Amino acid sequence: MFLSVFEMFKVGIGPSSSHTMGPMVAAGRFLDRLRASPFTASGLRASLHGSLAFTGVGHATDRATILGLAGFTPHDYDREVADQALTDIRLSKQVSPDHLAPMAFDPARDITFDYGAALPGHANGMVLMATDSQGDVILQETYYSVGGGFVMTAGELAAGKNTDEGAPVPHPFHSAREMLIMCNNTGKSIAELKRSNELSRIDASSLDQGLIRLWDVMDACIERGLNSAGTLPGGLKVRRRAKPIYDALLAERGMNQSAPHTINDWMGTYAMAVNEENAAGGQVVTAPTNGAAGVIPATIRYWLDHVPGASQNRVADFLLTAAAIGGLVKHNASISGAECGCQAEVGSASAMAAAGLAAVLGASPEQVENAAEIALEHHLGMTCDPVGGLVQVPCIERNALGTIKAVSAASLAMRGDGQHLVQLDAAIETMRQTGLDMGTNYKETSLGGLAVNVPNC
Description:
By secondary structure, the protein is α+β, with helices and mostly antiparallel strands. About 50% of the residues lie in helices and about 10% in strands. The strands form three sheets. The chain has a five-stranded mixed β-sheet with strand order 5-2-6-7-8. It has a two-stranded antiparallel sheet with strand order 1-9. A two-stranded antiparallel ribbon has the order 3-4. Helix 2 packs parallel to helix 4 (about 60-70), helix 13 runs parallel beside helix 16 and helix 16 runs antiparallel to helix 17 (about 365-375).
């Protein structure tokens, strides 16, 4: 099982990796099918199902689908260009993606939200169709957005398609137990195992530059959030809080009167800055999802700015370690809120961050695994119940608390020798089982929990 660090961490757009990035990616894949097809399409249609329907408007799924069918992609997304394109599409009622003839597409008519039963493969399902001049369907595909921006067709999902189709890697591990055995046998750290695996697919320069870019985008997102004020879009009128908290912390720093627990406020505001940017539709890095995108950047920023001896040179080891843990969670359970609730998103992110932090603080592989386990264990059972279908309440604050838990988990693990009762593999399996038992209302449908007990306006 190999999942690249660049698959786990992807530069994209907010507010949701599964509801925004995924549909845009799916639309792009459908356009590729059209380009390779002998048919000439005259029009396009899209049908959104399950969680993509229930919270689609709040997560900008319709917007992402429109833009994806127009040829936009998450990794090079330009908000101003996209806004103009949306206006043009709604006026002209057609899209003109590269290397395809213009096709009729009226968003008001050609995107439907199906609130019936979800499609059989996954809670996040969508059907894309191309039609001829008479309106008859000539090409159709079902896509599932399975979390973190990953997309599979119905056929790929049914066949159990592995995300890894490349040559074997030198250190394949399918569980935390296998990972630790490899560390002990080779004398390598988790980051070193992961780096070796990555280098079997790409050159060292590309790996290093790619990791630098990931942190640059993460850090830039924090900075934008720390320096942006106003109200988030979507109708809940949620005010941005990262900037005023950050400004107050800076002022207090000069007074030397802060209580020790104020460090939690620093961590929290870094995370909230990211998730406020995500909620505003800004550029973020899935870590491992958009809804949980603040935890890992905030933990790294905490380490760099507040921990003596921290060095930018070790950020790559942090990300590689975190990606190794995230790969195990995705392979053996889920990183999708629509599948397993918020335990799969913020819980996974907190486990990844705890592992990364422990690694750069000098922990042994066993202590790193313990840190990830502690963080995940104490998110078990967390539901996904966004108010109004927006990635704002409770999502923004959950990232702040997920960051604090990650740091606490790393610290607690490093007070021990790595030996512990509950193993990471057991915590991951428990999360999977808990997700299966969790009611649909509590998995990103906004039909239960806070979503029905907090006024939407």
